[in-house]
Amino acid sequence: MIPVSQPFLPPKDEYDFLITELWNTKWLTNNGPFVQRLEVELRRHLLLPSLHYVSNGTIALQLALKSLGLTKEIITTPFSFVATTTSILWEQCRPVFVDIDPQTLCIDSTKIEAAITEETEAILATHVFGIPCDVEKIEEVATKYGLKIIYDAAHAFGVQYKGRSLLSYGDIAILSFHATKLFHTIEGGAVVNNCGQELEQSLKLLRSFGFTGEEHILVGINGKNSEFHAAMGLCNLKYIEEIILKRKRLSKAYDDLLLNRFARPHIPEDVIYNYSYYPLIFETEEELLSTQCLLRKNGIESRRYFYPSLNELPYLQERHDCPISEKISKRILCLPLFSDLKLEEVDRIATLILEKEMARAL
Fold first, then answer.
1. Which of 24, 82, 120, 257 is the most exposed place for a label (fewest CB within 10 A)?
2. Which stretches of the chain score pLDDT less than 70?
3. What DSSP string describes 31-71?
4. What is the per-residue DSSP string for 204-223?
5. 109 with 102: CB under 8 angstroms?
6. Among the CATH numbers 3.90.1150.10, 3.30.390.80, 3.90.550.10, 3.30.300.20, which is that of 240-361?
């Protein structure tokens, strides 16, 4: 079976070396030395002044919303992982969906202004598959109306736009370090604060129950992560450039075989990309489903990422029409992509898809 994703694992002896240190110190959690070291190394690698390591990407989203004091309407995208929307609902805010750009699949920046009301407090947009949103236009609109900007950058580890880390845009950006991600700590995530020192202390408190020592300051949660998870991150970070290079080669191999036959999301110019996923856009949902079935019969997994369009979630109280997202979500499929995937496996996957396409055309 070829999985759609598979985590990179460092040499076991490198991880064992750090775990032995944990056994000796018995400092397993509560902002230990590995967590502190990982935060420093991630800030250095990603060219960021601030990064708070947390337990997962969903907690990162909730901390972002809470730290900015958001309680009302938040304009967001319908094309993302479900946590982007459920975090808004969890924090008792109201999601207002704006349709997506059909090329990048990110929120359509030209439609945001029309969705703003007196209750709007923020924009929460996703850099879909690591592809940058129209950050300049979003900042222009947010500045005009006094709105906060949060970017769900779960897929955007290492991506640069116009010479800057993509994570440096917006008031806050969040990352996911889940095992399926390009860079992982088994489970984990991060909050990137671009608002300056005023928010730093608040994020630290919110992550750790809202108290320091014996002084209880605000309502917090347990968003900390363990030394075991941080140790995995420290090991993996050494290999990240090699991982991205492998994924780039695999993506190019897919492109050489499939790009003339299928639509793909557009990556704007001035982007240093991370090759986090390989999505194809089919002409119809029926074509997607039959292709997925064919791949599965041949021991190859794929994923409908993202499906359904989030504006169609059954537990939403309000309906927002997002026809582009609704159509794309039914026709997009991610093919296997991970660092240990072999070029001959890419060739096999692509050949199966192409042969099916040619048979359908006859």
1. 24
2. 361-362
3. S-HHHHHHHHHHHHHHT-S--EEES-HHHHHHHHHHHTT--
4. HHHHBTTEETTEE-S---B-
5. no
6. 3.90.1150.10
Range 140-169 burial, b when 16+ CB lie within 10 A, else e: ebbeeeebbbbbbbbbbbbbbbeeebbbbb
The pLDDT of residue 197 is 87
Please say whether the dihedral angle defined by the alpha carbons of residues 95, 100, 105 and 109, taken in this order, is positive or negative: negative
What DSSP character marks residue 278?
-
Residue 275 to residue 81: CA distance in whole angstroms: 18
Assigned token pair, 135: 């950050």
| Rounded-to-integer distance, Cα 40 and Cα 237, Å | 12
CATH topology match: 12-98+105-237 vs 240-361 = no
pLDDT for residue 362? 64
* Amino acid of residue 256: D
The string of pLDDT tens digits covering residues 100-149 is: 999 999 999 999 999 999 999 999 999 999 999 999 999 999 999 999 99
User: Where does residue 301 fall: left (phi above 0), alpha (psi -120 to 50 degrees), or beta otherwise?
Assistant: beta
Strand partners, 333: 280
Task: Please provide the CATH number assigned to the domain covering 12-98+105-237.
Answer: 3.40.640.10
Cα–Cα distance, 296 to 144 (Å, whole number): 49
The residue count for the chain: 362
Nearest to 87 by CA among 196, 189, 218: 189
DSSP three-state, residue 314: coil
